[in-house]
Amino acid sequence: MKIRQRLVISFLIVITVPIILICAAGSALMNYHMNEIQQSYNLETDTIQILVNPLQVLNRLTRSICNRLQTTVLRHPEKIENQEYMDSINKELKTKFSFLIIRKEKEYVYVGNYEEFKQIKEKLPEYGADSSEIDGGFYVSGDNPALVKQQDFIYKDGAQGSAFVVTEVDTILPQIRALAVQIVVAFILIICFTASILILWIYQGIIRPLKTLQCAARQMSEGNLNNSVKVEKEDEIGDLCKDFENMRIRLKELIESRIQYEEDSRELMSNISHDLKTPLTAIKGYAEGIMDGVADTPEKLDKYLRTIYNKANDMTVLVDELSFYSKIDCNAVPYNFVCVNLDDYFSDCINELTLDLEMKNIDIGYFNYVDKNQQVWIDVEQLKRVVNNIIGNSVKYLDKKKGLINIRIRDGREHVQVEFEDNGKGIAENEIPFIFDRFYRTDASRNSSQGGTGLGLSISKKIIEGHGGKIWASGKENVGTSIYFTLRKCDCEKKEDLNYE
Fold this sequence. Notes:
It is a single chain. The chain is α+β, with helices and mostly antiparallel strands. It folds into 3 domains: 3-51 and 176-205, no CATH class; 61-172, 2-Layer Sandwich (Beta-Lactamase); 334-498, Histidine kinase-like ATPase, C-terminal domain (Heat Shock Protein 90), CATH 3.30.565.10. The protein has helices spanning 3-41, 47-52, 54-61, 63-75, 83-94, 114-120, 174-221, 236-291, 298-329, 342-359, 380-396, 456-466, 495-498, and strands spanning 98-104, 107-111, 137-140, 146-154, 160-168, 337-341, 362-368, 375-379, 403-411, 415-422, 471-476, 480-490. Helix 1 (3-41) runs antiparallel to helix 7 and helix 7 packs parallel to helix 8 (236-291). The longest helix is centred in the middle third of the chain and has 56 residues, at 236-291. The chain starts with a helix and ends with a helix. The model is unreliable at 492-501 (pLDDT under 50). It catalyses: ATP + protein L-histidine = ADP + protein N-phospho-L-histidine. One of its GO terms (molecular function) is ATP binding. It is found in: Cell membrane. This is histidine kinase.
């Protein structure tokens, strides 16, 4: 699951699950407490009304008593002066969390709860005041809030009287407070439960894979690149694990390549030392012979000098090829690609080589199975170096009295294939994969009698790869060797690029 989907689901869970659970818990708590309230106070009202307008509920608690009191003070005001009657009314009101106050003119002649009376005395309205707010009563705020109902009347002696029924708001319906507290507690518990589930889910999906990555990164920092990272999820974390694993593999390959490069460099230095030591030893020996007077005839002197000259030339060729190989290995050799006629190019190459090969008793054959007008993208000079290297290798390892080199060109979909085949001594099958390595020679002793630097085919491989082609070989001992490479076709429109001059 993608992290984006996980976040969307988490958002929905955070919104919906608490709402559902809170509604369920709230409904259960409200039903329980409302039933208790209805049974405790003998109310026949629904839950919504109790919660929405609790003062109306408080008002209903004393409604029947207030109605009886109203009838009494209006029809029989003399009963209000009866202490026993007022005590009975007040006793009944106490069961409803209320008490009675009687005022005659400015004097309070009866107070059912003196402590509460002191809190609201100054807030009681005058005779005839229209202060009804809630079904004949009004709300008195303060430290001890109360709901007060007022009924004015006239005593037998003509004095103005007021009867007050005071209901204590802060002590009535404690279940509502308990309900509110329980709902808040339930809300907190539900939020904690939902958060715990989400944290566990996120930990399993995000944190644990990140811990695995952290462990793998720590091992990589310690040099251990063999600990692979397993990808178990198809999300962004899984993609990160895949990228991390690819980085680990790539880094391991780079380190192995660096180690191999260092080994190759040591081998290169050894090979260079060997290939330079041989001609240098020869030059030194012949030079000492001249200085010691061994070359005491003009013929010997000429022979010694020519040998020194040839060995110096061999060293020059080796140094030049080393310099060129180092440049091409670092991609420092620029290519000048042009679109040329394939047949014309190879025909000219063969014409340049024919005379020299005939002098060495070697025949060269050219077979073009491609359209005569086929064009290819090449760097003229660099590809000629490849042709000369391959032909030079064939000449060097020919062991027949009559040598033969055949060049064949065959067609492909996007490339043409060029083949150089000779009838030399061939190559052992187990050595074919290595002939394009630098300084590789089939003679393990690196005998220099046949000449060469061991860089020719390695340089050829770099050049062909720079042309976007491939190069490979096949052969059989005592039969011959074939070298193949491919060149890209092109469809040129500019006339000056179409023909090789």
